[in-house]
Every structure is written in C-alpha cells, then in structure tokens.
Amino acid sequence: MTPRWEIVDGHVESFVWTRIFGYDLANRHGDGLLGGRYYSQADLPRMREAGMAGAVMSVATNPFRRAEHRTGVLMGNLARLRRSLETDPRVAVVRDHAGYRAARSEGRLACFLGVQGANAWSRPDDVARTPEVTRATLVHLTDSPIGATSSPLGRSRGRGGLTPLGREYVRALNAARVLVDLAHISRRGFRDALDAHDPDLPPVVSHTGVCGVRPSWRNLDDDQIRAVAGRGGVVGIMFHRGFLGRPSWRVTSDAVLAHLAHLIAVGGEEVAALGSDYDGMIDPPRDLRTVLQLPGLVDRMLGAGFSEDRVAKVLGGNHLRVMAAVRPAS
Description:
11 helices; alpha/beta
C-alpha cells in the first residue's frame, strides 16, 4: 500500500462490542470464533497495519432507554469511546477537517465520532452538548419519535416519514455542523429530511448499498443517489453480503466494485465512498472479512480500470471534502 492513499472508512461499529463484551480496541485481535463474520473485523492495530488514515467510529443508540436519560448516557459512551481510542498514542480523536489534517501530519490515525440514531439525545437542543460528534443517522433499525426506519421490522414497515420532532433534529444537527446521515431511514423520511435540511450543507449516507445492483429495503434507489449527489454529499458502500448481492455465499469484493461503479454512473465520482460497517453484525465477503484486506480492495479497483484519481476520491477524498465543507474547523 503506497502512502498516497488516504483510506477513510465512513462507518465502523467496533465500539458496540466494547460496550457488550469489553472488546479492547487498542489490542490486535484475530478473526474471532466465526472467522471474521459479524465481529472482530477491526481494531486500532489492524487499522494502522492496513494503512488506514481515518475512520468514523460509531456509538449505537439503545432505542428502549428512557428519553430523559439518553443524553447523559450518550456523553458517557462518547467519553468511554474516546478513552478507548486515545489509549494508543498513535491515534487521535478529531472533530473537524483541520483536526484530521493535524493528526495526519503527525502520522496518527484520525478518528471521528458518530452516532447511530439521533434519539441518542434526549432533545434536539442537546446536540450542542456533544461537540465531539461529527455525524449522526436520524434513525437506526427501529422507528422512533424522530421518524421511520427503512427496515420492514419497524412499526410502519418502512412506509412512514420524518416527524415534526425529526425535522427539529435535522435543524439542530445542521446548526451544530453535524453531518446528517440518511442511512437506515425510510424513503419517505429520506425526502422529508432533505426538505428540512439546510440546502447549503451536504448530507451523507454513511453505509448502504444501491438498488441498481441489489434491490433491497436497505439500499438506495437512483433517485436517492441523485438527490445526495445534487447536494454535494457522499454515499458510502457497506460490506454486508446480504445487501451486496445474491446468492450471498457467492458474493466477493467484486460486488463492492459493482455498487461503487453504479453510484458513479448515476451520481458521478464525487458521491462514492466507503462505509464498511465493520463490526456492525455484518457478514462481509470472504476477501473483505477484516480491515487487513482493504489494500486488496484498492488493487481490485485499479485492476477494474478505476483511475488513481477516482480511487483516491472513493477511499477518502470525497468523505474529507464533505467534512471540510461542513466542519472545516471547530
């Protein structure tokens, strides 16, 4: 892996295993009992070994927690995640594009902090209490007072939209310069969120697939891709086989390339990015089971005819461009 590549993964969920099992992000782990399926896909030593420059480390919301306690719990989880990351002096937790560049100039892995499910905050005004958060999905795998998930397991079975409270959250996130992440939201909620979103700020979809390659409730259709691209945003392709292709047991990293190619064909080179969802209970292709196999994905991009400029944009350039537009400095 040559130093010119800045690999920035737009969505890593390893902290969920820290919370549940005490998974130490500072230790180098193996592939786990399941050979890199569902967990043990990323940690700080392996991220550095893979040549990664940065990542968005996510804190997932417990949807069943009482609303009045959520902000305090979130602040505690953010502090714990930060401690876990900063145990390694070769890692820096950063809040903006300037912080990222400063960390990289020191040769450190730069970690942004994100939230899965904006109902992690007790109320929209609380967003301002957590300036370390740089990105947040509005919903996760369940419906909430904010709006409807795309998941068929939600009460509305993916047919609901964004609520008035959800629109308040969009405005609060915009005001705090937190990237509004439209992963997991229903198609109607997606449109509602863009209607409420500041037109001068780019939105993101951190981890998803595209229906043009694999039709799924989890993936974006072409109209959604064009909507994000038209706002100057980015879409990160995730690595879960079930959302990449069928039959899932035959899916390889070539499917990731197919999703990226479709994104680019529909929305242009500026929209495509990576959002693996490593450690988010995903089952990746066998040639992308852990972060250590990311350099091989770069080789396959080049082998598939992606130009070096395109590869640089997909690996991290597009994500960093959006971060610079929303949070140049705190």
